[in-house]
Specification:
It is built from 9 helices and 8 strands. It has 277 residues and is an alpha/beta fold.
């Protein structure tokens, strides 16, 4: 890493990809920086959907009640632009740009229909950079960076909210085990201690014929924060020694743009001295 590069860091998505999705995919993307063969349509879709919800959130923060027809039109525009920007996009069976546009518009309308009018939007797209401090009070070399979708106040409590789209309804307990609430609530404990933020909520919309809106609220303890830092230490060891391997039966394999590199992985002796988050 040269002196003009961004400081090495961890993010929730980087740490989660390395530890819970596929370490080899992490290495191809973030360490060796290979060019992917294609981009999954689900990733492009997620980007357009997320940007649409940002507009919805900013509107609500300004005291404006967004209209479903306006949000739907915005999604269609952002979706078409995203496809042009991403280039080689691979669609799943029975999917194309038009069917996914209709789906995204329906999902956007679902979010607006289920918005709590009593909920106050406090912040949108809050960026952060905090140290990862272990139980002995020692900070790791690489900090944690990221961006919170929004911070809301509901029923007198401040809650960090993250937006998700999902192929199906979430199983019970998924939010409890997820690493993202741990990361973001740890961040809030350092960045905004005076606000006493104790809860994290996933707002999930299903990518089904009739979208379903779900909210999954969860909390974390200081013990879980230390567990997060311990996991980051393990991740550092994996990267330092290049202990990467394919998740052969991983859920994300079909949409991974590094399938060719993965098939040739055992023949490759590529090594690098530069680490990337």
């Amino acid at each position: 890493m040269n002196s003009t590069s961004v400081r090495e860091h961890w993010s929730y998505s980087s740490l989660n990809q390395l530890l819970n999705i596929c370490s080899l995919q992490w290495a191809f993307q973030r360490l060796y920086r290979l060019t992917p063969e294609f981009k999954s349509a689900s990733l492009s879709f997620g980007s357009a959907f997320h940007r649409t919800l940002e507009w919805v959130a900013h509107s609500r923060k300004e005291g404006i009640t967004p209209k479903a027809k306006d949000a739907s039109a915005l999604f269609d525009d952002l979706w078409r632009r995203q496809l042009e920007e991403d280039g080689e996009v691979r669609f799943a069976d029975e999917e194309d740009a038009d069917t996914l546009s209709i789906q995204g518009q329906s999902m956007t309308a679902c979010v607006i229909a289920n918005a709590d009018p009593e909920e106050r939007m406090l912040e949108v797209n809050r960026t952060f950079c905090v140290p990862l401090v272990d139980a002995a009070g020692e900070a790791l070399e690489k900090p944690m960076v990221g961006e919170m979708d929004c911070l809301v106040e509901t029923r007198g409590e401040k809650v960090i909210v993250d937006w998700k789209s999902s192929a199906k309804r979430w199983p019970a307990g998924k939010a409890i085990k997820d690493l993202q609430p741990t990361t973001y609530l740890y961040t809030a404990s350092l960045l905004m201690p005076e606000q006493h933020i104790r809860s994290f909520r996933f707002d999930v919309v299903t990518k089904t014929k009739t979208p379903v809106f779900e909210q999954h609220l969860t909390m974390r303890s200081p013990e879980q924060f230390q567990r997060l830092v311990a996991l980051a230490k393990i991740a550092e060891q994996l990267v330092q020694h290049e202990l990467f391997y394919p998740a052969e039966q991983g859920f994300y394999c079909g949409g991974c743009g590094f399938q060719g590199a993965c098939r040739a992985w055992q023949r490759s002796q590529t090594r690098t001295l530069s680490l990337a988050a």
